[in-house]
C-alpha cells in the first residue's frame, strides 16, 4: 500500500521510500526513512496535500509524492 | 581577537528569535552573493568583536536548494570560528539530523537546545549532560522566546573564541557505511586537504554521490571509478541505495541517542494545543472560509480602520512640511526653477510614496504575526492545490493576495518563501494582481464610459489580471523556470505566540527598506519625471504641459498603441507618468486635458477613447510594469537590476498583447 492511500486516523510503517533526486533526498532528510512509523492525520480541504505525524512532529506532503512511499502494517490509531 | 560565528538550524526552530536575542537590534540585512537568500549579520552583545551570521533555516546539507548550498559554502569557505546550532528540543530527532551533518564539518560547535521550557512544562526530560557527552560538544538549554539561558550560551561562545578547540571526532556510522566512508577517506585524503574540505565531510559526500563536492575535490575518472565501486558494494550488501543508507544511518544513530537521553511521557502542551487549533483552522469545510476571513480582517484593518487615517495624517503632515519648506525657499530667494525642482519634483514625488509607509508597516505587522505564530504554514497547506497547477506551492498564496492591496509589500513578503524558484516566479506574477492604487483609474474610465456597469467592468478587470497571472505561470513554468520545483514537503510547526520583539524588528526592517527606496530610486525617478514635465526639447521651462519633453516622448510612442485602439499623446504620456505611481495616470489626464471637473474629464476622455479602446487602455494599465516603488522592491528581492528590468519588460509585453487581443477581438465582435 502506498502512503497516499491511507485514510486519516490510520498509521503504518514505511517500507520503501521511492522517488528520485531532490524529492527523495528531501523525504529522507525529513525523517521519512524505512521502518519509521507514520500516522496520517488529515487531508487538506481541497483533497490534497496530506498531513502526517512522524518522529514527534507534523509534516505535510502532496499525494503524488506520498504515492512513491510504500507502507506496511497499516492499522487504526 | 575577533570571531565569526554561524547560526544554523532548522526552520521553525526559533532561530530568528535567538538571533535577535544574541545581537539586539544591531543587525545588517543583505543577500548572500549570487542568490536571493537573505543574509543577516549582527554583533553579539557582550562579546567583543564577535560577529554572528544568521544562516538560512534548513533541514540538511544536501546540494538541492540554494539555502542549503549557501550554508555549506559559507561554512566551508568562510571558516567561521564556531557554529551555534539551534535545536528545537520538542522535536529533537529531526533537528539533530542537521546537527550530525554540521558536526562533520569539523568546526567547533555548540548546540543551543531551544524550547526547553516547553519540554519541562510537559513533564518530559532531556538529559542534557549525557547528550552533550555522547555528542562530544557543549549543549546549552535555552528558551529564546522567554530569554532563558542566553547568558550561558554567550559564555560558551566566548570560550570558543579563546580556546578554539577542534571538534572531537565522533564516529556515529556503523557497519557497511562505516567501511565505505573510511575506505573513501583514504583515497581522497590529499584532494580534501587541497580543497580545504574536512575529510570526514568530503568522504560522506562521496558516498552520497554529491556532485558539487566531487567537482570541488577534482576527483579524476580513475578515483571516481574506485569510489563508485566501493559505494556499489555497500549498496548491494545493505540492499538499499546510497542516499537511503546514509539517512537511515544518521536517523538510526539519533534514535539510539534519544532512547538513552530522552524520557518522553507525552507530547508538549503546545503540540496538543496545535492539534486542537488545527481542527478548526485546517478544517475540511471551514479551513478556507476562515483563511479568507482572516485576510479580510487584515485588509480591513490595514487599509481602512488604521491604515487610511494614518496615511491621510502622514500625507497631510508631509504636505504641510513641503509647503513650509517651499515658503522658506521663496523667502530666502531661491530661484523659481530650483524651488520647483525641490518642491514639485523631489518633495512631492517622495512624499506621495512615503504616505504609503503606514500601510506597509501595518501589513508587515500582521504578516509577521501570521508567520511567527505558525499559521502561514497552514495557509500553504490549505491553498497548495490551487497554486500547484501553475508550478507554485501554497506558500505563494499570501504574497499574491497582498498584491491586491499593494505590490510593494507583496513583493517584499516573498522573502519568506523557502524556494528561490518560487520566490522569483511569485515576484513576477504578483503585480498582475490589481493593486489598490489602480482603483482611481477604474473609477475614471468607468465614470466616463460605463457609469451603469462599473462593478462588472471592475470585476472583469480583476479576473483578467488573475487569468494573465495563471497563463504567465504556465508559460514561465514551461520556459524560464523549467526544472524541477523544490518538492512541497513542509513542516507544520506548533502554534506559538509570536515574540513582540521579533515582530517589531521585522516591521522596522521593512520600514527601513521602504524608506531607503523612497529616498533613492523613487527620489531619482521623481526628479527625472519633473524634469521631463517642466522643460521643452530646447530645455526652456514650459508653462503648458503639452509643450514638455514628456509630451514629446508621449507623441513619439503614441503610435505604438494603434493596435490597442488608441493613438493619443495624452494617453501615452499618462502611461509614462503612471510608472511613478499608478494614481498619477488620473492626475496626468486632468493636467493634460485641462479638465478641472469630473464632467470635463469625462468629455475629454470620450474624445480620446472609444468605449472599446477605453477597455483596452484599462487592461494595459493594470498589467504593465508596476510603479517605481514596486520596481525597486523587485530589484531588491531579485537581487539584480537586469532581472527587474526583464520582469518589467515581460509585464509590459504581456499587457500589450492582452490589451491588443481585447481590442481586436472586441472589434470583430462589435462589427
From TrEMBL, chain A:
SUPFAM superfamilies: C-terminal domain of transcriptional repressors
Gene Ontology MF: a single term: transition metal ion binding
Iron among keywords: yes
Pfam families (alphabetical): FeoA
Keywords: Iron
Domain of life, per lineage: Bacteria
Protein name: Ferrous iron transport protein A
Residue ranges annotated for the Ferrous iron transporter FeoA-like domain, each copy included: 1-73
Amino acid at each position: 500500500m502506498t502512503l497516499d492511500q491511507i485514510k486519516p486516523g490510520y498509521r503504518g510503517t514505511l517500507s520503501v521510500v521511492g522517488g528520485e533526486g531532490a524529492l527523495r533526498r528531501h523525504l529522507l532528510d525529513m525523517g521519512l526513512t524505512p521502518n519509521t512509523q507514520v500516522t496520517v492525520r488529515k487531508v487538506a480541504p481541497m483533497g490534497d496535500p496530506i498531513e502526517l505525524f512522524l518522529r514527534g512532529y507534523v509534516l505535510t506532503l502532496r499525494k503524488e509524492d506520498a504515492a512513491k512511499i510504500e507502507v506496511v502494517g497499516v492499522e487504526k490509531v | 581577537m575577533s570571531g565569526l560565528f554561524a547560526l544554523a538550524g532548522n526552520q521553525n526552530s526559533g532561530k530568528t528569535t535567538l538571533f535577535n536575542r544574541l545581537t539586539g537590534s544591531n543587525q545588517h540585512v543583505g543577500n548572500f552573493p549570487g542568490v536571493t537568500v537573505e543574509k543577516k549579520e549582527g554583533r553579539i552583545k557582550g562579546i567583543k568583536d564577535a560577529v554572528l551570521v544568521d544562516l538560512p533555516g534548513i533541514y540538511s546539507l544536501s546540494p538541492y536548494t540554494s539555502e542549503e548550498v549557501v550554508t555549506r559554502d559559507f561554512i566551508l569557505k568562510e571558516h567561521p570560528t564556531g557554529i551555534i546550532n539551534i535545536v528545537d528540543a520538542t522535536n529533537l530527532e529531526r533537528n539533530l539530523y542537521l546537527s550530525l551533518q554540521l558536526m562533520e564539518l569539523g568546526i567547533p560547535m555548540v548546540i543551543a537546545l531551544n524550547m526547553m521550557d516547553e519540554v519541562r512544562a510537559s513533564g518530559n526530560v532531556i538529559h542534557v549532560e549525557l547528550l552533550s557527552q555522547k555528542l562530544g560538544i557543549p549543549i546549552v538549554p535555552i528558551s529564546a522566546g522567554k530569554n532563558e539561558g542566553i547568558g550561558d550560551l554567550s559564555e560558551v561562545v566566548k570560550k570558543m573564541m579563546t580556546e578554539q578547540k577542534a571538534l572531537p571526532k565522533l564516529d556515529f556510522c556503523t557497519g557497511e557505511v562505516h567501511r565505505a566512508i573510511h575506505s573513501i577517506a583514504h583515497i581522497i585524503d590529499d584532494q580534501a586537504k587541497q580543497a580545504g574540505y574536512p575529510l570526514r565531510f568530503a568522504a560522506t559526500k562521496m558516498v552520497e554521490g554529491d556532485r558539487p563536492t566531487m567537482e570541488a575535490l577534482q576527483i579524476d575518472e580513475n578515483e571516481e571509478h574506485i569510489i563508485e565501486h566501493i559505494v556499489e558494494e555497500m549498496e548491494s550488501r545493505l540492499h538499499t541505495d546510497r542516499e537511503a543508507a546514509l539517512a537511515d544511518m544518521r536517523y538510526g544513530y539519533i534514535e539510539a541517542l534519544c532512547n538513552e537521553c530522552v524520557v518522553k511521557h507525552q507530547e508538549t502542551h503546545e503540540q496538543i494545543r496545535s492539534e486542537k487549533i488545527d481542527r478548526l483552522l485546517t478544517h475540511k469545510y471551514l479551513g478556507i472560509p476562515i483563511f479568507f476571513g482572516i485576510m479580510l480582517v487584515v485588509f480591513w484593518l490595514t487599509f481602512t480602520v488604521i491604515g487610511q487615517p494614518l496615511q491621510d495624517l502622514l500625507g497631510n503632515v508631509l504636505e504641510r512640511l513641503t509647503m513650509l519648506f517651499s515658503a522658506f525657499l521663496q523667502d530666502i530667494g531661491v530661484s523659481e526653477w530650483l524651488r520647483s525642482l525641490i518642491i514639485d519634483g523631489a518633495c512631492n514625488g517622495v512624499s506621495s510614496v512615503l504616505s504609503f509607509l503606514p500601510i506597509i508597516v501595518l501589513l508587515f505587522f500582521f504578516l509577521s504575526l501570521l508567520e511567527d505564530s505558525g499559521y502561514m504554514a497552514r495557509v500553504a497547506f490549505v491553498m497548495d492545490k490551487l497554486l500547484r497547477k501553475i508550478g507554485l506551492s501554497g506558500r505563494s498564496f499570501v504574497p499574491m493576495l497582498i498584491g491586491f492591496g499593494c505590490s510593494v509589500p507583496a513583493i517584499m513578503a516573498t522573502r519568506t518563501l523557502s524556494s528561490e524558484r518560487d520566490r522569483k516566479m511569485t515576484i513576477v506574477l504578483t503585480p498582475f494582481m490589481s493593486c489598490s492604487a489602480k482603483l482611481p483609474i477604474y473609477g475614471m474610465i468607468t465614470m466616463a464610459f460605463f457609469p451603469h456597469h462599473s462593478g462588472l467592468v471592475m470585476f472583469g478587470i480583476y479576473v483578467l489580471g488573475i487569468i494573465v497571472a495563471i497563463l504567465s505561470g504556465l508559460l514561465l513554468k514551461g520556459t524560464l523556470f523549467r526544472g524541477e520545483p523544490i518538492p512541497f514537503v513542509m513542516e507544520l510547526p506548533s502554534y506559538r505566540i509570536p515574540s513582540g520583539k521579533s515582530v517589531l524588528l521585522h516591521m522596522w526592517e521593512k520600514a527601513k527598506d521602504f524608506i531607503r527606496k523612497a529616498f533613492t530610486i523613487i527620489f531619482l525617478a521623481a526628479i527625472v519625471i519633473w524634469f521631463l514635465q517642466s522643460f521643452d526639447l530646447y530645455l526652456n521651462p514650459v508653462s503648458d504641459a503639452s509643450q514638455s519633453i514628456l509630451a514629446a516622448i508621449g507623441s513619439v510612442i503614441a503610435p505604438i498603441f494603434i493596435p490597442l485602439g488608441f493613438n493619443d499623446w495624452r494617453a501615452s504620456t499618462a502611461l509614462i507618468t503612471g510608472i511613478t505611481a499608478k494614481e498619477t495616470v488620473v492626475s496626468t489626464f486632468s493636467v493634460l486635458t485641462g479638465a478641472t471637473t469630473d464632467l470635463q474629464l469625462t468629455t475629454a476622455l470620450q474624445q480620446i477613447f472609444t468605449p472599446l479602446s477605453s477597455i483596452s487602455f484599462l487592461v494595459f494599465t493594470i498589467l504593465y510594469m508596476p510603479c517605481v516603488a514596486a520596481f525597486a522592491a523587485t530589484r531588491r528581492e531579485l537581487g539584480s537590476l537586469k532581472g527587474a528590468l526583464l520582469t518589467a519588460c515581460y509585464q509590459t509585453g504581456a499587457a500589450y498583447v492582452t490589451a491588443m487581443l481585447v481590442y481586436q477581438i472586441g472589434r470583430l465582435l462589435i462589427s
